[in-house]
């Protein structure tokens, strides 16, 4: 996110379940891809429209910009900003959707609202915060914490892979780059870690019953 100033039967059942999981994985990847395509269309329109859509992002503590909590993730400041968010969002969305497409939509909604509200509440004033990276960091935090708390091999592997390939994202939570909303990254990661812990504990509790 950037800141803008201002048996045989048994075997067949196993194969069916694995195929079903793969369908869930691909379905969530498709949905994640479509969401980023929507962001691309919005940005393209923003380059030709006489009005600057980025003004509808999050303006901290401005009650007239509360709607920015919902709009900000779909707005981007440049092509580079958009493309830097494209692949991580699709990858993390696919991994989260491995559980179910319902889980993806639930977390997507929770992370948009909770991260956006915290940015509105705590981020630097006199600025407009836009971009999908707050949600991406929430997904990142969720995937890392969920696997280690859930303690299931598949989810632990996802956590490890996320750390190996996207561990560098931790730098984004620090105020190191001017014009970048580190608050969105930091608060998103915190929200994601909390949701990962709560969802994992809920799953463990269900298994114990």
Secondary structure elements and pairings:
Elements: E1 2-5, H1 8-48, H2 68-71, H3 79-96, H4 101-122, E2 127-130, H5 133-150, H6 153-166, H7 182-208
Antiparallel strand pairs: 1-2
Helix pairs in contact: 1-3, 3-5, 4-5, 4-7, 5-6, 5-7
Structural account:
The protein is mostly helical. 69% of the residues lie in helices and 4% in strands. The chain has helices at 8-48, 68-71, 79-96, 101-122, 133-150, 153-166, 182-208; strands at residues 2-5, 127-130. The chain has a two-stranded antiparallel ribbon. Helix 1 (8-48) runs antiparallel to helix 3, helix 4 packs across helix 5 (133-150) and helix 5 crosses helix 6. The longest helix is centred in the first third of the chain and has 41 residues, at 8-48. It is globular, with a radius of gyration of 18 Å. The chain starts with a strand and ends with a helix.
Biggest sheet statistics? 2 strands, antiparallel
Strand order of the largest sheet: 1-2
Q: Give the SSE string.
A: EHHHHEHHH
Give the DSSP E fraction (strand runs of 2 or more residues). Answer: under 5%
Shape: globular
The tally of strands reads: 2
On the 0 to 100 scale, the average pLDDT is 89
* Gap between N and C termini: 41 Å
Number of H/I helices? 7
What gyration radius follows from the Cα positions, in whole Å?
18 Å
Low-confidence stretches: 7-16
Task: For the structure shown, list the relevant keywords.
209 residues; mainly alpha; two-stranded antiparallel ribbon; 7 helices
């Amino acid at each position: 996110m950037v800141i803008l100033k201002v048996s045989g039967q048994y075997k067949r059942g196993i194969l069916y379940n694995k195929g079903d999981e793969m369908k869930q994985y691909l379905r969530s990847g498709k949905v994640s891809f479509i969401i980023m395509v929507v962001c691309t269309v919005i940005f393209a329109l923003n380059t030709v429209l006489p009005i600057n859509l980025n003004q509808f992002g999050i303006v901290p503590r401005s009650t007239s910009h509360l709607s920015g909590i919902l709009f900000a993730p779909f707005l981007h400041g440049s092509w580079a900003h958009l493309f830097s968010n494209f692949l991580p969002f699709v990858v993390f969305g696919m991994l989260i959707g491995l559980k179910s497409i319902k889980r993806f939509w639930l977390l997507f909604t929770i992370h948009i609202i909770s991260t956006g509200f915290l940015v509105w509440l705590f981020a630097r004033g006199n600025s407009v915060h836009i971009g999908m990276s707050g949600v991406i960091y929430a997904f990142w935090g969720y995937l890392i914490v969920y696997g280690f708390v859930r303690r299931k091999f598949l989810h632990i592997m996802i956590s490890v892979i996320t750390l190996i390939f996207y561990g560098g994202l931790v730098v984004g939570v620090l105020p190191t780059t001017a014009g970048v909303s580190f608050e969105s990254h930091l608060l998103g990661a915190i929200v994601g870690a909390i949701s990962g812990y709560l969802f994992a504990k809920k799953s463990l509790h269900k298994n114990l019953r």
